[in-house]
Amino acid sequence: MRKGLLILWLSWPALAKPPLPPPPPLVPEPVPGEPAPFNPDQTREAVPKPPLLLPAPQLEDENAPKLPIRPEEAVRMAWRLQPDIRTAQGQLQQAEGTEIQQRAALLPHIGGTGQYSHVSGTSAGSQSASLGLNPTNRTSDTFSNSLGVNWLLFDFGHTRDLVRAADLRRQSAAAFLLQSQNDVSLTVKERYYAVLQAQRLVQVGEDDLKTRQEQLRLARALYQAGNMSPGDVVRSQTTVSNSVFALNNSRRNLELARLDLAQSLGLAPRTRIELVDFDEPEVPLKDMNQLSQLAFSQRPDMLVAQRNVDAALASLDAARTLNYPALSTFAGITYAGRANGVQYPTFNLQLSLDFQLWDGGAQRGASVNAEGGVEVARAALTRAQLAVERDVSGVLMQLLTAERSLEAASAGVDSAREGVRIAAGRYRAALGSLTDVFDAQTALVSARTNYVNALNDLNLARARLRHALASPFEQGYFSS
Question: pTM to 2 decimals?
Answer without folding.
Answer: 0.80
